[in-house]
């Protein structure tokens, strides 16, 4: 039998024990998953589901935006801020227009940033090893 409380504790510990780098990776993964689900929902004409997944993606990208430290991050953080703001705007447009092409544009941008973020993690791990 499935133990719901045990599963919830496991999920909670996954987030509370993750490094800051891993938490950002998890945000990217969740955003990309939700964009994919929104796209599938649009294909099936499930407009309310599409709306829900786009809104979830919007919240996640907002968290990525708010997590930036422009003071420490300098030009890179400023550039990421502009990209995140662009993605947020495009997500709103995708939701209003029910436009899968715009969703795929956002997907591509997030994948590029995630790829760079993943690489940073590998370099940090190698440097510490």
From TrEMBL:
<dbReference type="InterPro" id="IPR003713">
    <property type="entry name" value="FliS"/>
</dbReference>
<keyword id="KW-0143">Chaperone</keyword>
<protein>
    <recommendedName>
        <fullName>Flagellar secretion chaperone FliS</fullName>
    </recommendedName>
</protein>
<dbReference type="InterPro" id="IPR036584">
    <property type="entry name" value="FliS_sf"/>
</dbReference>
<keyword id="KW-1005">Bacterial flagellum biogenesis</keyword>
<dbReference type="GO" id="GO:0005829">
    <property type="term" value="C:cytosol"/>
</dbReference>
<comment type="similarity">
    <text>Belongs to the FliS family.</text>
</comment>
<dbReference type="GO" id="GO:0044780">
    <property type="term" value="P:bacterial-type flagellum assembly"/>
</dbReference>
<keyword id="KW-0963">Cytoplasm</keyword>
<keyword id="KW-0282">Flagellum</keyword>
<keyword id="KW-0969">Cilium</keyword>
<keyword id="KW-0966">Cell projection</keyword>
<dbReference type="GO" id="GO:0071973">
    <property type="term" value="P:bacterial-type flagellum-dependent cell motility"/>
</dbReference>
<dbReference type="Pfam" id="PF02561">
    <property type="entry name" value="FliS"/>
</dbReference>
